[in-house]
Design a protein that fits this description.
One of its GO terms (cellular component) is chloroplast. There is one protein chain. It contains eight helices and eight strands; from the N terminus they run αβββββααβααββααα. It has about 260 residues and is an alpha+beta fold. It has a domain at about 80-250.
Length: about 260
């Protein structure tokens, strides 16, 4: 079964706003399978990541694991564990309305504790992780939209991602920062009951692009176990990466020049 036909990924906010960075993930459970010998039964992406035929409710666990249930009830959302607070000692990027409207990335060059993302040691970023505090003033205080629905906020994150495409791997996953980051960049709709509902094909392409970028960046920075770290990042968004993908990347490296 092709992955794009089976994957439906949904993040349910545990609290009313995306400013509260905790979500549950509802998707088909991802599992790595061998490459199919029949080209008519696989797509390029699905060759490296296949899915079970069992639909499950998947919730973020602070430890980075998943809490699986075979029951997909509306009541499941009320059973999700309370949200985790930000990781202690993480680096905080504080963004205000003025930064956003001017597409000003200076907050990433004045992070408390480090000079800038570009000059920080990868090991230090991975150990402490990074989070966002978004101080955005709505023109209409009664505007019900979530932060990820404001075009100017999303555009700021698009520019940020263009400069630091490896950023997702150093975010504070436990506090939901990876999920919020994805919501800023991936097309989605807001649902009264289910929260943020991603376009499944767009999310799949986003994850695959980040896998290519993050794996190469970790290797360049000589970070131990780059495959494991990259796979963990993809799994947090509901995708399981097969070793075949990493083997192909290693077999056909790109010239950095």
């Amino acid at each position: 079964m092709p992955l794009m036909a089976a994957t439906t990924t949904t993040f349910y906010p545990l609290l009313p706003s995306l400013k509260q960075t905790s979500f549950s993930l509802n998707s088909w459970v991802s599992s790595c399978k061998p490459i199919s010998s029949n080209p008519n039964h696989s797509l390029p992406i699905s060759q490296f990541c296949r899915t079970h035929d069992v639909k499950a409710s998947v919730a973020f666990n602070p430890s980075g694991n998943f809490d699986l249930s075979l029951h997909d009830d509306e009541e499941d959302a009320s059973k999700v564990a309370p949200p985790m607070p930000p990781t202690e000692g993480r680096f905080e990027i504080v963004v205000d309305t003025d930064n956003i409207r001017r597409l000003d990335l200076s907050p990433v060059r004045s992070i408390n504790g480090i000079k800038s993302l570009s000059e920080a040691e990868p090991k230090e970023l991975l150990e402490h992780t990074i989070g966002f505090t978004i101080n955005y003033t709505r023109e209409d205080p009664y505007d019900p939209r979530e932060l990820s629905e404001f075009p100017d906020i999303r555009l700021w994150f698009v520019r940020l991602d263009a400069y630091y495409p490896w950023l997702p791997v150093v975010l504070d996953w436990r506090a939901g920062e990876l999920a919020r980051y994805a919501a800023m960049l991936v097309p989605h709709q807001m649902n009264m009951r289910m929260g943020v509902v991603f376009n499944p094909e767009a999310l799949e392409l986003f994850v695959m692009k980040k896998v290519f970028i993050v794996y190469s960046w970790l290797k360049q920075q000589k970070v131990p176990k780059p495959k494991l770290k990259t796979s963990d990042m993809a799994r947090m968004l509901g995708f399981g990466m097969g070793d075949e993908l990493f083997d192909l990347i290693d077999a056909h490296p790109l010239d950095p020049s």
